[in-house]
Amino acid sequence: LGSSSSVPFTSIFSQLFMTVVVPLIIGQIVRRYIKDWLERKKPPFGAISSCVLLMIIYTTFCDTFANPNIDLDKFSLIIVVFIIFSVQMSFMFLTFLFSTRNNSTFTPADTVAIIFCSTHKSLTLGIPMLKIVFAGYEHLSLISVPLLIYHPAQILLGSLLVPTIKSWMVSRQK
């Protein structure tokens, strides 16, 4: 097309490594040494994790919709929501089909875990990745909208499907 661009792969990968991989490695190392203490004290990591996730979602929503350059009309937003719900349902249905094939060795409980774990992605990884890869890009807010919709959509769809999937799993385990 007669145009070119350069992508700073080294910078992007080093920032992603420092933001995602290094904290994970440090956490695993520290956990090994304080595992007994953690089991005795039982700190409220679930509540802390939920609060941190909520803060990430809140700040990202604020950054996204406070940006005057977002220029996102209601019809486009509805289309994005529809596409994301369709993609999420399609992914869940495909993983269900693949994990319940005749030659599959997965148990019904495995299938449920596969459906939810393979299709669910989190803002806690997606937003830092977007901010690193698209650093300085003026339309970063617009790029983050699908992820901001995908995360609540997966929670909503998952909670709506739990009774159906639970009854399927119970009927298959009998």
Helix and strand content put the structural class at mainly alpha
Ends: how far apart?
A: 60 Å
Radius of gyration: 20 Å
Percent strand: under 5%
Low-confidence stretches: none
Estimate the helix proportion, in percent: over 70%
Number of structural domains: 1
Count of runs of 4 or more consecutive helical residues: 6
User: What's the overall geometry?
Assistant: globular
* Mean model confidence by pLDDT: 86
The major β-sheet equals:
none
Family: Belongs to the bile acid:sodium symporter (BASS) (TC 2.A.28) family.
Pfam family, one: SBF_like
Protein name: NTCP7 protein
Transmembrane segments: 12-33, 45-66, 78-99, 111-137, 143-165
Word description of this protein:
InterPro entries: Na+/solute_symporter_sf, Put_Na-Bile_cotransptr. This is NTCP7 protein. Keywords: Membrane, Transmembrane, Transmembrane helix. It is globular and about 60 Å long. The chain has one domain. By secondary structure, the protein is an all-alpha fold. The chain has helices spanning 9-41, 45-66, 74-99, 108-119, 123-133, 140-173. The protein has six helices and no strands.
Task: Summarize this structure as a short list of keywords or feature phrases.
mainly alpha; single chain; 6 helices; 174 residues
Concise description?
By secondary structure, the chain is mainly alpha-helical.
List the helices and strands and how they pair.
Layout (H helix, E strand, L loop, with lengths): L8 H33 L3 H22 L7 H26 L8 H12 L3 H11 L6 H34 L1
